[in-house]
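Could you help me review a protein record that somebody else here produced? My question to you is simply how this chain folds and whether the tokens agree. Thanks in advance; the entry in question is below:
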Amino acid sequence: MDNKEIVASQFGKNAGKYVTSKGHAKGKDLNILLEMVQENQNRYLLDIATGGGHVANKLAPLFEKVIAFDLLPEMLEKAKDFIRKNGHENVSFVQGDAQALPFSDQTFDTVTCRIAPHHFPKVENFVRETERVLQKGGLFLLVDNVAAELDEYDQFYNDIEKKRDPSHYRAHKKTEWISLLEKNRFRIESFIVFKKKFIFDGWCEMMGLSESGKLELNTYMTSVPSHIIEFFSIHIERNQVQSFQGETMLLAARKEG
């Protein structure tokens, strides 16, 4: 299976969890996104890989029209139920691939994408497509989990995510994101990094990881060198991982124009 098929398999059966997941439904990044668009000239918003619809729901009151865009029809149905229940009638729901957007050039003044690009095999295409559909001077707001700059820590974080979720492709380094965006006519306006605590049991449950898979992942995480355990604040009790800590970035970039 290619990665889109794996994503469909993994997320189709777990779509409902993403509406109620605290890690997706809550978070100070949502409030920061709201603050960042309030001073913008808002008409048309595209929320790529909308998932449970939390960004589209949060920002809908500030825009004339919002498109919640996702690869999976199951995810769009859950997002639609959630957003409609909150009274937002200016949101449309469109299915498609973030790496080949079905929209005309310079359609949107704002594009958002939150906690999704680590599933994209061709993240360069995603960035180029985002630049294409944004108007000149348009705002791109990107939130995603990121890997550490040191290769050993980068590999460890991506390894455990892949063991938990086969649809995980790669969490990129912060410097990789900055370089990629600047090479595609974006000017970085703001870059914020948050510590992100993962509760091991809930983190595994989100993707429906089997007991054997969970045991294998626990064994791997408890057997790594002590400097990795320290860097990721892996909390272990009675040889069981309780939690660990990663990083999430919030990046605001403006299309040159």
